[in-house]
TrEMBL record:
PANTHER family: TRIOSEPHOSPHATE ISOMERASE. It catalyses: D-glyceraldehyde 3-phosphate = dihydroxyacetone phosphate. SUPFAM superfamilies: Triosephosphate isomerase (TIM). Substrate binds at residues 6-8, 172, 212, 233-234. Involved in the gluconeogenesis. Catalyzes stereospecifically the conversion of dihydroxyacetone phosphate (DHAP) to D-glyceraldehyde-3-phosphate (G3P). GO terms for cellular component: cytosol. Pathway: Carbohydrate biosynthesis; gluconeogenesis; Carbohydrate degradation; glycolysis; D-glyceraldehyde 3-phosphate from glycerone phosphate: step 1/1. Belongs to the triosephosphate isomerase family. This is Triosephosphate isomerase. GO terms for biological process: gluconeogenesis; glyceraldehyde-3-phosphate biosynthetic process; glycerol catabolic process; glycolytic process.
Length: 256
């Protein structure tokens, strides 16, 4: 199981470093078993967060990456820069990037390919809007996003890729997908990964759920057979909540 925190455009360098230090301290006190953690702070805090995480195994991720290696792209950040800051993961294709920055499936595919080429694990986000779900189009949209985002990219091992299913209507709204809705889409995504790669690969890829995951609903979501963790927004901005979600994951795994 993997629990990843997406801090979005929250925290400055001081508060982000403090949050990372709180998470590191909580991790040392908790028994999270085999549950892996990652945090994805804003770019400006990456190096100080890396330092604050210290010797813990909490992985560092970024929230975006440019698809070119380097050059005259003012304001952009490359995969190599992320690696040099200590990142192992990068979120790609978050619905906020799709909506507010007009990222297309083709743009996202280029970012996935660039992350992969540089040894970063892309956390590829997919998910439908409320209108798309109401129109009965959710699976179709997710399939296009998944096939579009992964087109032509090969992965050596299942750990080289993470998928996050984030229904747009559940993000930041408190309106979480039901465990059945989440599991149904996760199973569908796993079937697509089987078709694109292999069943062994599909079985082992982490498929995270994102969208108002909180300590009070984490257990029912994480106990679904095809839910392998969470991509947590709001609740990851509080070390106690973030670790509480991970602890739910650990107790589910311990009982499995
Ligand atoms: O990347 C994280 C998701 O957008 C979920 O955000 P949320 O937990 O605040 O709903």
């Amino acid at each position: 199981m993997l629990i990843a925190g997406n801090w979005k455009m929250n925290t400055d360098v001081d508060s982000g470093t403090e949050l990372a230090a709180d998470i590191a301290a909580a991790v040392k006190k908790s028994d999270l078993g085999t549950v892996a953690l990652a945090v994805c702070p804003p770019y400006v805090s990456l190096t100080s967060v890396r330092e604050a995480l210290g010797e813990t195994s909490v992985a560092l991720g970024a929230q975006n990456v440019h698809h070119e290696d380097e050059g005259a792209f003012t304001g952009e950040v490359s995969a190599k820069m992320l690696l040099s800051a200590g990142c192992s993961h990068v979120i790609v294709g978050h619905s906020e990037r799709r909506e507010y920055f007009s990222e297309s499936n083709q743009d996202i595919q280029q970012k996935v390919a660039q992350a992969r080429a540089n040894g970063l694990v892309p956390i590829l986000c997919v998910g439908e809007t409320k209108a798309e779900r109401d129109a009965g189009d959710a699976k179709n949209v997710v399939e296009q996003q998944l096939r579009g985002g992964l087109a032509g990219v090969d992965f050596g091992a299942p750990d080289d890729l993470v998928i996050a299913y984030e229904p747009v209507w559940a993000i930041g709204t408190g309106d979480t997908a039901t465990p059945d809705q989440a599991n149904e889409m996760h199973a569908f995504i796993r079937g697509l990964l089987d078709d694109l790669y292999s069943s062994a690969f599909a079985d082992d890829v982490h498929i995270l759920y994102g969208g108002s995951m909180k300590p009070h609903n984490a257990e029912e979501l994480l106990s679904q057979p095809d839910v392998d963790g969470g991509l947590v927004g709001g609740a990851s901005l509080d070390a106690e909540s973030f670790i509480a979600i991970a602890e739910h994951g650990a107790s589910i795994q311990a009982g499995a």
